[in-house]
Specification:
This protein has 178 residues and is mainly alpha-helical. Helices cover 57% and strands 4% of the residues. It has one domain (3-26, 38-177): dinb family like domain (Four Helix Bundle (Hemerythrin (Met), subunit A)), CATH 1.20.120.
Length: 178
């Protein structure tokens, strides 16, 4: 496995572990409750993460498959990719960010269903990353509405940082309940 693929898989595993730890701190009966009227419930946070990750997994899979068919180059660099992602800035909860319309949770599913969808979306993202293992994913870019143009490595790094941001939000919701 290429070092860049391994770096991102490790990053994703850590962010999922952070999210699972935060989730386990909230009693199941409290996961549907909003900590305040203008805040998302734990279930809504998980649903939002599943929506975002599913869209990114689909994008990565689609772009990798298309690029490989049109002559995508092999990866020649082994330099870290997460240094090109503002992980700390993405995880910073001191500034509120508003999700775009298509990324907002519906609030119609419970935390267990949202977690199940997240499990599926993570498997799809990891499968897409593995399909791109050893290929020059840095040469494939898509625009993010707030962050601008990002290559596929950065998009995958974004998923982990975004998930860690929301893990912190879940932990904050526990403190708000106390």
């Amino acid at each position: 496995m290429h070092p860049r693929t391994q770096e991102l898989l490790t990053h994703l595993a850590q962010s999922r572990a952070d999210l699972a730890a935060a989730l386990s701190s909230i009693p199941p009966a409290d996961r549907q409750a909003k900590p305040s009227p203008d805040a998302w419930s734990v279930a809504e946070i998980l649903e939002h993460l599943a929506i975002v990750e599913t869209r990114i997994a689909d994008m990565v899979a689609r772009d990798v498959a298309a690029a490989k068919q049109t002559g995508l180059a092999r990866e020649t660099s082994e330099s870290p990719v997460l240094t090109s992602v503002d992980v700390a800035g993405l995880k910073d909860r001191s500034q509120k960010r508003v999700a775009g319309e298509t990324s907002r949770p519906t609030g119609t599913i419970d935390a267990d269903e949202a977690w199940s969808r997240l499990t599926v979306s993570r498997a799809r993202l990891e499968e897409a990353l593995r399909a791109g293992d050893g290929w020059a994913l840095e040469t494939l870019s898509q625009s993010h509405p707030r962050l601008g143009s990002m290559n596929l490595y950065q998009w995958i790094g974004f998923v982990g940082a975004h998930e860690s941001r929301h893990a912190a939000q879940i932990a904050e919701s526990l403190r708000d309940r106390m």
